[in-house]
Write a structure and sequence with these properties.
- It is a single chain.
- About 25% of the residues are buried.
- The protein has 2 domains: about 50 residues, no CATH class; about 160 residues, no CATH class.
- The chain is an alpha+beta fold.
- About 25% of the residues lie in helices and about 20% in strands.
- A 6-stranded antiparallel β-barrel has the order 1-2-3-4-6-7.
- A hairpin with a 2-residue loop joins strand 1 and strand 2.
- The chain has 8 helices and 7 strands.
């Protein structure tokens, strides 16, 4: 029947009084975002459900949203202690990465590392150790024995660590003496690093992943950058270098690679890539 014939209008009850209008999904979502900003993701899911999943899907998502709304103070994920990959992180390192094909582009790199098995360690790399740090990328660390068995087509991705350690630039801030007791066993290791957030100065990650390299000689990094890092930790890279000189090695001097296919060298340019003892 038409409205003029006295049929009940949509939104009214059979007695003729107007029933309370239920909030539309978009209005519910807006309320959730305003009152529970930490659950914005759930609100977005509800919006997506309304648009893309149809009525049944939207209802299901709203039920989930209501559950999260009612349990906002509870953790979203419950796990046993150390049951996640992050629970295995046992080593915090700080050094500097430069781009293999643009060695003047240098960033401070904070590594959080865990064992991956088969002689491999894996690290997530951030631009700082603060609560709002940006996730720059990953680094994998292997021994020299493993590295030497790799084909040249793979070796080109791996950078040495000898200079970083002996120069004092690579530190373990949470270990005694910035890791002096730890690093002798890591001098001849190699790292493979890609930054998927190439330039931490941008608001969002832009461009292709960037193959990163290591500082391998004096003068390849601005001293002011090292000084700023030292000030944050209250340390002196020069004093760390002096302490590590007692290990008996000369600090390596290796020029930056000239091409993407050039293999890394650990100690020196030229034919012989051997450590020099003092």
């Amino acid at each position: 029947m038409s409205p003029e014939s006295g049929s009940p209008r949509s939104g009214s009850n059979l007695a003729g009084s107007r029933a309370p209008r239920m909030p539309r999904p978009a209005e519910r979502n807006a309320t959730m975002v305003n009152t529970h900003s930490g659950r914005t993701t759930v609100s977005l899911l509800a919006c997506m459900g309304s648009v893309a999943l149809g009525a049944a899907g939207a209802t299901a998502v709203r039920v989930f949203a209501d559950h999260v709304h009612d349990h906002a103070d509870e953790p979203l994920v419950r796990t046993k202690p150390n049951a996640t990959p992050l629970g295995k992180i046992h080593l915090y390192l700080c050094a500097f990465h430069n781009a293999k094909m643009d060695p003047k582009f240098v960033v401070e790199a904070h590594h959080y590392c865990s064992p991956a098995g088969n002689g491999v360690h894996q690290c997530v790399v951030f631009d700082s150790n603060g609560p709002n740090a940006k996730l720059l990328g990953t680094e994998y660390i292997i021994s020299n024995d493993i590295y030497q068995k790799l084909p040249d087509g793979e070796k080109k991705y791996w950078h040495p660590h000898a200079y970083e350690i002996l120069s004092g630039q690579l530190i373990a801030p949470e270990a005694p003496d910035m890791g002096d007791a730890l690093f002798p066993g890591l001098i001849t290791t190699w790292g493979k690093t890609f930054h998927t957030w190439p330039d931490p100065g941008t608001d969002v990650p832009l461009g292709e992943p960037l193959l990163m390299w290591s500082i391998n000689a004096d003068g390849q990094i601005d001293d002011r950058m090292v000084a700023r890092r030292d000030a944050k930790f209250g340390i002196s890279t020069e004093k760390i270098r002096e302490r590590r000189s007692a290990w008996g090695y000369e600090v390596p001097r290796v020029a930056p690679p000239k091409s993407i296919n050039e293999l890394g060298r650990m100690w020196a340019d030229g034919q012989s890539d051997k450590p020099k003892r003092k």
